[in-house]
Write a structure and sequence with these properties.
It contains 16 helices and 9 strands. It is of the alpha/beta class and about 350 residues long. It has a single domain, classed as TIM Barrel (Alpha-Beta Barrel), CATH 3.20.20.
């Protein structure tokens, strides 16, 4: 009896198993640059769209149909669990997550009760079930890394300096640890519920972890990222770990326990594998802005990423961060075709 997607090049690459083509998917591939997304998205908070399972399913599958990518990424947001338990989170268009009353003191821990996915986020689970029922490609579920979610809750909005977050992290480690434990457990509950509903892999987006020095990351963040990955280890699904600007902490992120390490565009793949070891499975890492340039430049940069991988079976092609809103979908379609046409080992 074959398991679902047993012939998936994406899942094979996640395990460095033999497969016939380099798999590719894009972070933020659902929405943003797609005209079919803008046609049905509507106005208002993205959280309202996420709460509509039928709409979220359609948005999740749109890039699979258009691009022929090897995996779908759930259409959701990393702040959905905190929103669902009533912390007071919204996602403002053009701004990002904003918090009514930012996290400031121990009393605020009571505003982060344990997540009960079947009760709190049934719409997410229904979206997962519907996408899985479509069956075209494996679905990647995800959650926000505890540090990145904490930074939004503490800062109250996206930040360039993470000043309040670092002040709490370093100035009140007891409160910081309590917050991180709570967010790690919410991530585990969310991820396990997505896996239970059929997600074939998961990704932990610790998008802003690159704002930290290696010693601070190791002391204040790594234990909680490890807690998340250990919390879903028994499910057997591939686990991916990603952050931006993480070149100096890649080795620590790898120690958290993920099967696949996402690499942003600042560290070439061959350099990343040299730092992490020859058997490391990597995801990435075309600079998203390259896709705004001439097609011959895009082709050359895609070829360079593939060359630097050196035909290692443990590679999933992706951007080094998310799809930019102004990208031409035709360019991304061309990237997919080029990656799929690459003959590994030739």
């Amino acid at each position: 009896m074959t398991t679902p997607h047993s012939d998936s090049p994406f899942l094979a690459a996640c395990r460095a198993e033999p497969h016939d083509r380099t798999p590719v998917w894009f972070m933020r591939q659902a929405g943003r640059s797609l005209p079919e997304y803008r046609a049905i998205r509507g106005s208002g908070s993205i959280l309202n769209t996420i709460a509509d399972a039928d709409l979220s399913t359609e948005i999740t599958l749109q890039p699979v149909r258009r691009y022929g990518v090897d995996a779908a990424i759930l259409f959701s947001d990393i702040v959905v669990p905190a929103h669902a338990v009533g912390f007071g989170v919204d996602v403002r268009p053009g701004v990002g997550p904003v918090i009514d009353r930012p996290f400031e003191c121990r009393a605020d821990l009571e505003r982060l009760r344990p997540l009960e996915p079947e009760t709190d986020t049934p719409y997410v689970l229904e979206t997962v079930r519907q996408v899985v029922a479509d069956g075209s490609v494996p679905l990647i579920g995800f959650a926000g890394g505890p540090f990145t979610v904490a930074s939004y809750l503490i800062e109250g909005a996206p930040s360039r300096t993470y000043g309040r977050t670092k002040a709490m992290m370093l100035g009140d480690p007891e409160l910081w640890n309590a917050l991180m434990e709570r967010l790690a457990d919410m991530a585990i509950a969310s991820l396990r519920s997505q896996i239970d509903c059929g997600a074939s892999a998961i990704q932990l987006f610790d998008s802003w972890a690159g704002a930290l020095s290696p010693p601070v990351y190791e002391r204040c963040v790594l234990p909680f990222s490890r807690r998340v990955f250990e919390g879903v280890a028994d499910t057997g699904v591939p686990r991916i770990h990603f952050g931006v600007g993480t070149g100096e902490i890649l080795h620590l992120m790898a120690d958290a326990g993920a099967d696949v390490i996402g690499v942003d565009w600042r560290v070439p793949l061959d350099v990343a594998r040299l730092r992490l070891g020859p058997d490391t499975i990597l995801q990435g890492n075309l600079d998203p802005a390259v896709c705004l340039g001439p097609l011959d430049v895009v082709e050359a940069e895609v070829a360079d990423v593939l060359r630097r991988n050196g035909d290692h079976p443990g590679h999933i092609f992706n951007l080094g961060h998310g799809v930019l809103p102004e990208m031409d979908p035709a360019v991304l379609a061309h990237v997919v075709d080029q990656v799929h046409a690459h003959n590994r080992g030739s």
